[in-house]
Automatic annotation (TrEMBL):
<keyword id="KW-0251">Elongation factor</keyword>
<dbReference type="GO" id="GO:0005737">
    <property type="term" value="C:cytoplasm"/>
</dbReference>
<dbReference type="InterPro" id="IPR050802">
    <property type="entry name" value="EF-GSTs"/>
</dbReference>
<keyword id="KW-0648">Protein biosynthesis</keyword>
<feature type="domain" description="EF-1-gamma C-terminal">
    <location>
        <begin position="6"/>
        <end position="171"/>
    </location>
</feature>
<dbReference type="GO" id="GO:0003746">
    <property type="term" value="F:translation elongation factor activity"/>
</dbReference>
<protein>
    <recommendedName>
        <fullName>EF-1-gamma C-terminal domain-containing protein</fullName>
    </recommendedName>
</protein>
<dbReference type="InterPro" id="IPR001662">
    <property type="entry name" value="EF1B_G_C"/>
</dbReference>
<dbReference type="GO" id="GO:0005634">
    <property type="term" value="C:nucleus"/>
</dbReference>
<dbReference type="Pfam" id="PF00647">
    <property type="entry name" value="EF1G"/>
</dbReference>
<dbReference type="InterPro" id="IPR036433">
    <property type="entry name" value="EF1B_G_C_sf"/>
</dbReference>
């Protein structure tokens, strides 16, 4: 018996001026310092409020995880479960550590449309994260995105500096499954 797959709600939105796949290719192939070329392209040519929205994603239960590899696995699992929406979403998630040893997860994503629930809810653990819409007119929000996507070694979160332990980038597509670009930016330590 043939069962027809229902279309994802984000597939019902009109086509975009520039496909997300084009932005992902430019980002993936950008080897400039702090991804300056692709970030310039993103802000000056790709992004517009009518087609896309920007989201900060923070893990709610950082205090419950006791080892860095568990954070890394959590992000990998989250990304793997986003395959249903990966053609409508792109972003970078980092694991960070404070000088006091506080470890956490944060990330910045661009999604098609403005409904974050539709974009992220295909991952069973999507509600373990807090979603905050970012404003492209806010210098603070743009700086946050540029730091996360620019693969900086140190980022500023709410006025406090943190070391980036690692970052993972969601770039895959349905046609080539999931491309998980995992980059260790500073020495990784397991606790």
């Amino acid at each position: 018996m043939f069962v027809r797959r229902s279309r994802h709600p984000l597939e019902l939105l009109p086509d975009t001026k520039i496909p997300l796949k084009q932005w992902k290719g430019i980002y993936m192939n950008d080897h400039s310092t702090n991804k300056q070329q692709s970030l310039s392209y993103f802000w000056n040519e790709f992004y517009n409020n009518e087609e896309w929205s920007l989201w900060k994603v923070d893990y709610k239960y950082n205090d419950e995880i006791d080892a860095q590899f568990k954070f890394d696995n959590l992000i990998s699992g989250f990304f793997n479960r986003l395959l249903e929406t990966v053609k409508f979403i792109s972003g970078v998630t980092i694991v960070y550590r404070s000088e006091e040893g506080q470890i956490g997860i944060t990330g910045a994503f661009v999604i098609r449309g403005c409904d974050y629930k539709t974009a992220f809810s295909s991952a069973p653990e999507w509600d373990s994260f807090e979603y905050t819409q970012l404003n492209p007119e806010s210098k603070f929000d743009v700086k946050f995105i540029d730091q996360i996507w620019g693969k900086n070694n140190i980022i500023d979160i709410n006025g406090k500096s943190f070391n980036v332990i690692n970052s993972q980038t969601l770039l895959g597509s349905r046609s080539n499954a999931m491309e998980d670009f995992y980059e260790i930016l500073t020495a990784s330590e397991e606790e």
